[in-house]
User: Fold this.
Amino acid sequence: MEPHHHARVSSGAPFWLLRQGLLDVCESPLPAHADIVIVGAGITGALLADRFVREGRQVVVLERNAPAEGSTSVSTALLQYELDIELVALAEQLGEQAAARAYRRCSDAINELETLTQSLDDDGDFRRATSVYVGTKRGDAHRLRREAALRTKHGLESRLLSAGELGERYALKGHAALETDQAANVDPVRLARSVLRRAVVAGAVVCARTEMTNWSETGNRILVSTVRGTCSAAAIVFATGYELPAGLPNDVVSLHSSYALVTQPTNDLGPLANGAMIWETARPYAYLRATPDGRILIGGVDVPFKNSDVRDALLPVRTRQLERYLKKLFGESLPATAFAWSGTFGETADGLPRIGRMPGYTNAYAALGYGGNGIVFSQIAAGLLGALCAGQAHEDEQLFGFAR
Assistant:
């Protein structure tokens, strides 16, 4: 019998929510004044709130749903310095130095996230991992050799594996692979909740189920209107996942639907044992990792986003595709699917996020972590916007901002 016949499949409640039950919901009253209003209480909003409030600012976080219930809950949370666009290709777009800096900043952000989780009451299951980037086509051996050389040139940890070494080490078929220990994974919902709890203890106000209805900038103040009243702030930051804030051109990003599943727990994690996570050079690519409770997690089979109804209607078909992919790796011993879900993510032409001051505004900012490195980009955003909201320049604004 095919694994999906055993499955309990849900598109409405991603794995990270299903395994933890209901989220804590803050029903705080909306203050009339604040230093910074953050729109969005996912992982990006949480990291921003924590950063701002620890710098002594009065912070209000608005969330139309429950905290971490949106894009954060559908994340598969592979933390990598590697971008969806390889370093060689990115260097051709941005220049070698800028491309290498983008990769290094992602590498630094993983270390920063590890340090942050060690300071929390709940580390969000942060675990170091080994990323294995598998070349699926014959020409990929040469391609990955060039990629490894450029990464090494710029001090990025990476090892080139031959087809034989890939098979011996991971029992995987491929023409070559890049392996790096500068990677990690995490439970995104637990991490967001843990960071938000600390921010609230430090004085941040989180207003859940409070939708913003309008906002405007007048002089040096931002007036934010919600279903529960208004708040005047010195700055506003949009941390809204793939959803573009009003005022930004819609050609900044292209949207895609993605699909994921996790199996029942198993004692045989195959190539995913010992903290390995696997992805591939094919586009769109599949990516796999294990969860701390011994499940196999796989995501991919992306398609252009049309609307949420079309996205979710494809879930059964896409689930079977992912199961077939897993069956090639694990054979008949593949455990049954436990949960499957769909989500939407944004992609930019250069694979980089949009973080910075919104065009045409003085005190309005956005942290839009497009691409496959959303949580890593969220950490970068905390540092970059922390500086900008304090009136300071930041060397990464040119690299990640809206003017590029």
In short: Confidence is low (pLDDT under 50) at residues 1-12. Residues 323 and 388 are 45 Å apart (CA to CA). The first helix runs from residue 15 to 18. The longest strand covers residues 337-347.
